[in-house]
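ping. complex inputs:
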Amino acid sequence: MNYTNDANQLREFIRLLERKFGILEKSEVSCCGVTFSQCHAIVEIGRAKNISLNELAETLGLDNSTMSRTVNNLVTNGMAEREIDPADRRYVTIKLTESGHKIFEGIETAMNLYFKRVYNNIPDDKKEQVIESLYILLEAIGRNECCK
Amino acid sequence: MNYTNDANQLREFIRLLERKFGILEKSEVSCCGVTFSQCHAIVEIGRAKNISLNELAETLGLDNSTMSRTVNNLVTNGMAEREIDPADRRYVTIKLTESGHKIFEGIETAMNLYFKRVYNNIPDDKKEQVIESLYILLEAIGRNECCK
DNA sequence: TAAAATACTTGCATTTTGCAACTATTTTGT
DNA sequence: ACAAAATAGTTGCAAAATGCAAGTATTTTA
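pong. complex structure:
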């Protein structure tokens, strides 16, 4: 087995995956009336129920300043609200408003439907293998990061 | 087997993958002295040897105008050159300069090394399965797109 | 209790992006 | 053959996304 070539194959497939999901994301955003970065933020806030700016920025891999502005847009557009954490007044707790939550649910529904479809397109006898493989891949990536 | 939950698992893993590669891309860009979009363009031009603006934009999923500007930046910085196709003067043939090619090779080397490492982190008896699974996944995604 | 650390925000500059309108060239339909 | 349609690319514009540096406010630490 030629390791280098298989590693290239890995790169190539991941490249294609990235491209597919780039396209998916674009269509996703356009259908929900929110911008790209707003969409990401809404999903993460919605998942966490409430989250600090710091954590949110960390999760999305963005600078705090960028994150702060995106949250600001959400707040301005009535999709999220900020609240100072009484336990530690440096922290801001961010959560979705009702309106924001509806958008969140819309995105979730669409995404879940999409992935359900993709999943069902995988042959039955390969479904488990694909899921397992993604997990293995994530592990392999993680192991790479920790010791570079 | 609960299909919906496994589909969610699929979504979750892909979400994590996307995040990992977002980070990878950021570090990649910062080390090569080119911007994000320039990096993408360089890689695609380098792979194709020469390519039309149209094709390049199509490949990267960008508007022609955006692509034109990015190419413009590359040309201005001496990394690429434009040439009108004599066979059909509407087309512009884009190729890397020597300087651009060096950057391309730098990116390729780094990326190949990265993926080789990741690949080698996959247990031997799972390597083949992971590659196959990615292919299956891509197929499943493709089958989804054609009929929505 | 002063200094350091932390969470967040704002000023600024840059990058990335797409739409619409434009030019230049080639293809098509009559 | 030639006017109309299609195609490839560019540019004006406006908006979104981003990070760094410098700021405020609060809490922790020494």
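Chain B touches chain A through 52 residues (CB under 8 Å).
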